[in-house]
Structures are given as structure tokens and as C-alpha cells.
Amino acid sequence: MFTGFKSQALAQSQDGTGGYQQLRLDDTPGQGRAQLSTTQHASTLTLGHLKGGHDNLREGERGYGADLSTQAYGAVRAGQGLLLSSEPGNTQLAATGALSQLQQGSDLLKRLNDAARTQQAGLPSEPESLPTQDGLKTLQDHLQATHSGSAAGAIGGGAGEVPGWSAPVLLGSGQAGVMSLTPADQVWVSGTQTALLAGSALNWLSQGHLVLAVAGGLVLYTQGSKAAAGSPNQETGIALHAAQGTLSARAHKNTATLAAKTQVRIVSTTADVQLAAPTRHLLATAAGAYIKLDGDDIELGAPGTIAFKGGQQVLTAPQGASMSPVTPSASHKLCEYTARAADFAGAGTMGAA
């Protein structure tokens, strides 16, 4: 059942206890395999029907396909491009499903960007086409390139055209899913653009903190259309919830604007709602009427009637100190005015007052 070649380390070549290099071909019906191995760092490449065992022993099942293992380091290098895929294909770089998925993602990105621009959700001076769209287009062009092969001299056969990428791209594709897991840290870095696209839902979950830090602008936009039937989240719009702790939104050096087509509600279920402008005035307007709080002053204005209504109204007058008038008093034997009149007339006598 076995054929092959096995060498022996020279240091123990006499007793056969040293290391070795081995090429083993197993021609068992229905369980064929080819194995290339060395005892150095237990490095082995096995193709076909994977079996355990050593020398001429055939032991338990280990799987099917290809198994490359080593207890030292490993590297896979391809200077013109590398495809890692669970998709079957007839040619070396066949990735029809991956290219189709990439095109669907590019179309989705364009539709959402166009919808956001229609709703004026872009950043100032933002180009019509996002840099991410241009990056996806460049990748698609690289992956759709082809190479032609031809036979040398008068040898017939071997001619044709096959996929041959125009740039050294690393493409990973999984028909039933792709998982990347580690109990330690995981880092994703790109020198230009990074795109995360999902046809249904994109979920970011963190047991600790989630930090988004950008040097330029940040846009959160939702189309708000009805979710797909298979989507795990049927809600639409944008929701910010803080089950515990505070929710803070600030514009430290510019204007903060909250706008809606219909209603804007600011509600406190158990405490107060406070609107404050410590250094400027506070102005509330509606259909031409307004109330303005400016320092010590309150100003009301309206194109029509201003009415104060309530079950009980108390208008307090300005506060001030009060006192009773005090008139001077004196005791006169004669009327002062009568004496002056008699003196002016030259009379010798006058009546007593």
C-alpha cells in the first residue's frame, strides 16, 4: 500500500533513531494520500485522505483535503496576488462569487451615498463620489484583469486566457461566512480607505468601551426605509440610548443644531428641563411670536394678542419702603398773617387768633 522515500539523519544513521525526511504515497483504495514531512519542527504537508500514523502504520482519521502544519514559523507569500477562498473554481484565481459580492457592495455604497447627498447629509466640500467608492473601483479593476498564455515554439496546446490580477491583491472569500477571532487584540489598519458594507445589518458590540475618533468630520445618516424581511433589527431611524450614566452631545467651538420636519420634543420623565445661556440671551420663537430672556429683562412679542391665562394669577408690584407724612406744628399767640396785615395797614389793634 505504501511507496516512497525516507532519508536518515547522519548522526544516528547506524541505529535509525535520529530524525528523517520522508515522502510517503498511500495507494489504499478510496483513501489515497501523499505526504511530505520532516522531523525538524514536526513539519508536514499531507494531501488527500488524511490519516494518522508513522512509517507503515495507518491509524485514525484526521480529515480530508490538505493539511500543512509545523511547530515553528509559517509563511505564505505570492508576489503578484493571493486568493484565499472556499469557493470552487476551475482556474487558479477564479473568484466569481467574490467579485459578484464586491460589485453588490459597491452598488450599495453608491445608492446610500446618493441618498445621503439628496438629504444634504454630506460634509462641506465633500466630492460627489466618495474616496471609498474610488478605492472599490480600483480593486475591481485589478481583480478583473486577465493574462494570456501561449506555447513556446511549435508545441501545440496550452494557449488561452485566465484571470491574472494587475496588482498584488490579497483576496479572502468565504461562501458560508468568514470569521476572524482572537482572545487577544485585533488590529485593522489601512493607509487610505476602509469600507464595511452589509446587505442586511452591521452590528458593533463591545463589553467595554467603543471609541470613534476622527480628525475631520463625522456623518451619521440613515435612510429610514423599511428594513428587509430577514433583517434581525426591524427598527428604522437613529436611536441613542444610555440605560445608565449620562448622554452628552457638545459643540465646543461652533453651533449645535437640532432640527426636524415635524415635532421636536425635549422631555424629562422624573425631573426638570433646563435651557440656559449664561452669557447671551435665550430666545424662543413660533409663528412670529417670541419670548426673549436677556439678563434682567423678559421680552414678549407677538403679531396678535398676548394672553396670560390660569386658574389663579398673582401679579406682584415692585417692592419699596413706605412712610406716613409728618407735618410741622408750632404755638402762636397771635396769627402771624393777621399781624403782618395790621402792620402793613398801620392799624393799632388786631384780633387775637
Please outline the major beta sheet. Answer: 5 strands, antiparallel
Order of neighbouring strands in the sheet with most strands: 1-2-3-4-5
Given as residue ranges, the uncertain stretches (5+ residues, pLDDT < 50) are none
Compute the separation of the termini in Å: 160 Å
User: What Rg is obtained from the alpha carbons, in whole angstroms?
Assistant: 46 Å
Helix content: 10-25%
**Shape type:** elongated
Mean pLDDT: 83
**Alpha-beta classification:** alpha+beta
Count of strand segments: 12
Q: Report the sheet-strand fraction.
A: 15-25%
Order of helices and strands: EEEEEEHHEEEEEEH
Q: Count helical runs.
A: 3
Region (Disordered): 1-62
Biased composition (Polar residues): 1-15, 34-46
Biased composition (Basic and acidic residues): 52-62
Domain DUF2345: 158-319
